[in-house]
Amino acid sequence: MSSSNSLSVAVLPGDGIGAEVMGPCLEVIDAVTSRVGDISLSFKEVPAGAACYRDHGEALPKETLEEVRNADAILLAAMGMPDIRYPDGTEIAPQLDIRFELDLYAGVRPVRSIPGVPGPLSDPRAQALDFVLIRESTEGLFASHGKGTIEDNRIARDTMEITREVSEKLFDFSFNLARKRKAAGHEGRLTCVDKANVFTSFAFFRSIFDERAAENNDLIADYAYVDAMALNLVRNPWVYDVAVTENMFGDILSDLGAALIGGMGMAPSADVGDEHAVFQPCHGSAPDIVGSGKANPTAMFLSAGMMLEWLADKHDRPAYGKAGALLTAAVDKAFAAGNLLPFELGGESGTTDVTNAVIAAVDQVC
Amino acid sequence: MSSSNSLSVAVLPGDGIGAEVMGPCLEVIDAVTSRVGDISLSFKEVPAGAACYRDHGEALPKETLEEVRNADAILLAAMGMPDIRYPDGTEIAPQLDIRFELDLYAGVRPVRSIPGVPGPLSDPRAQALDFVLIRESTEGLFASHGKGTIEDNRIARDTMEITREVSEKLFDFSFNLARKRKAAGHEGRLTCVDKANVFTSFAFFRSIFDERAAENNDLIADYAYVDAMALNLVRNPWVYDVAVTENMFGDILSDLGAALIGGMGMAPSADVGDEHAVFQPCHGSAPDIVGSGKANPTAMFLSAGMMLEWLADKHDRPAYGKAGALLTAAVDKAFAAGNLLPFELGGESGTTDVTNAVIAAVDQVC
Ligand SMILES: CC(C)[C@H](C(=O)O)[C@@H](O)C(=O)O
Ligand SMILES: CC(C)[C@H](C(=O)O)[C@@H](O)C(=O)O
């Protein structure tokens, strides 16, 4: 990591529409950072993904992993292509390997409505959602990635693993986020989502949650079973503040959360560890729309906003936080007028339209 | 099982509001069967559940299991109470044990809108949902029920198991249902929901699905990853016909499905095996509303309707099918008028109101 004044960002456009949203994202970052000033970011693009695997035989080359480890932050667009697979038929998803390699245990997936973007729920309260799902991202069922077995073509097994060490860090991270949100006017509540009524590993997960809740008793701690949570996220998602869960459950629930705010193209994410962090839109490489100009760059932009805020906290550099807040405000402003509607929401605003509107909005919200 | 003309039903009211919805359900069954005629059902109530465990030390007494095995069908209301648990802290859920003991591999969970019951989605197409989720109900992650481990208070594990034997039966069952629905005007499509991009056991699951799809090529077979499915069920649930998935995923997605049609009180289910079947509302024992008269018996009624139709098919007795269809039509009729709104949906129609309206509707739809 850089010890100089400049902070370095490893840039992984990846596959499919990845490059199509990454380019505009770097423009938007430039627009906000040059406005705020006192910011010095250097960007280095590195290869990874399905096309990289096809062309070089490696989905996550050693040099890329090295660059990623040495960078102050990682900006990732999209990876994987349905037609390019490992010999065993599974898809190429180096984003999983990065999460494991860099111990990015906290997958932060905000579910925040953007005024002007239509959501699927009819209740007016659903137009102002603002909660965060935290998906553990290095173990749980995904501990079995690459390790599942098939016996005699008769029975297949994958083993879910939940460790005390990671769970403690995950819950502390989550309580800290809830505390930060409480200071900003939210409820200050953390909901543990599990299936502790049926599984030993989830009873273990919940017991560690209870221990950490006792240490964080300035905050409200409660629980939900994952099945009830899926129902609640449709029926009354506005009651949540921060919710934390296992990797596989978080994968499912965060897509459900993205659906509530306009789909994957609107949903940013951060995979955060003690040292490193990856910032990435929730959407995939969308091979069906590559080259059409239809890709929605919003989630990529909002992920960059999260990156700037994370860099501000980590390196105690308020200017980066200002830039992150400005980026998010510009996205909100661009959609608030109500004449921007991405293709995936039935509109006709393409990548360029959204990008131009956001860059124009930077001036307006300054 | 009875070889005489009469068919026997084991009745398990279970815990909490279980008895409050079971009583009315038996009344409704009586109303439809006596209308149709040529039906002879005998009912025998047997104990199981959390209160049974508290009072007799067993959640599923041997005699109950025996009765359940000998019955032609099993009608179950709700089981489990948060305050009564096994020594290890997990909840009492003999419904899981029954699924395992009787090999009830196909958990059938219809997601059908009832006109007059408000749903959460604003798109008008969501007012006419009619698809079926099939949750494998004897293995998957639940194979680990009671078998999870904790090592040194440091790492906990639960192992998901997917077998060829059960998967083949599950897919054949699901294709047959899709075929039956096709004959009734539906698309004739089965969607396999998995996470085959990441896990060996789901790649195995999908490969068996492909084999069975080749044998059922009069029907459309396609796939969805479970995370995308969670999003799609919110954004465009009307595109599905029949979807089939693993036990844990099905638990989550079927609650999401219930949310789309008015909540757990509106969602019936059937757990079906080659020999036996349990019919049960998706809701739990709801201790918070016991004794208030607020319990919504609709899902219990609709489950009984599924039971009558299943008995008709299994024993080739069309009168039972007529009674099942009549029961479902009476529920629809009762809600169609629009002046019935259960408490969980913000209304004031209690157990008795719904029951009386459905019984009155039996006469109207005859
Ligand atoms: C592409 C896939 C492996 C990945 C995951 O399951 O984690 C994606 O769904 C995500 O949520 O980042
Ligand atoms: C009560 C619980 C054990 C059960 C399950 O997880 O199967 C319930 O959620 C269900 O869906 O029937």
From TrEMBL, chains A, B:
<protein>
    <recommendedName>
        <fullName>3-isopropylmalate dehydrogenase</fullName>
        <ecNumber>1.1.1.85</ecNumber>
    </recommendedName>
</protein>
<dbReference type="GO" id="GO:0051287">
    <property type="term" value="F:NAD binding"/>
</dbReference>
<dbReference type="InterPro" id="IPR050501">
    <property type="entry name" value="ICDH/IPMDH"/>
</dbReference>
<keyword id="KW-0432">Leucine biosynthesis</keyword>
<feature type="domain" description="Isopropylmalate dehydrogenase-like">
    <location>
        <begin position="8"/>
        <end position="358"/>
    </location>
</feature>
<dbReference type="GO" id="GO:0000287">
    <property type="term" value="F:magnesium ion binding"/>
</dbReference>
<keyword id="KW-0460">Magnesium</keyword>
<comment type="subunit">
    <text>Homodimer.</text>
</comment>
<keyword id="KW-0100">Branched-chain amino acid biosynthesis</keyword>
<keyword id="KW-0028">Amino-acid biosynthesis</keyword>
<dbReference type="GO" id="GO:0003862">
    <property type="term" value="F:3-isopropylmalate dehydrogenase activity"/>
</dbReference>
<keyword id="KW-0520">NAD</keyword>
<comment type="similarity">
    <text>Belongs to the isocitrate and isopropylmalate dehydrogenases family. LeuB type 1 subfamily.</text>
</comment>
<dbReference type="InterPro" id="IPR024084">
    <property type="entry name" value="IsoPropMal-DH-like_dom"/>
</dbReference>
<keyword id="KW-0560">Oxidoreductase</keyword>
<keyword id="KW-0464">Manganese</keyword>
<keyword id="KW-0479">Metal-binding</keyword>
<dbReference type="GO" id="GO:0009098">
    <property type="term" value="P:L-leucine biosynthetic process"/>
</dbReference>
<dbReference type="InterPro" id="IPR019818">
    <property type="entry name" value="IsoCit/isopropylmalate_DH_CS"/>
</dbReference>
<dbReference type="Pfam" id="PF00180">
    <property type="entry name" value="Iso_dh"/>
</dbReference>
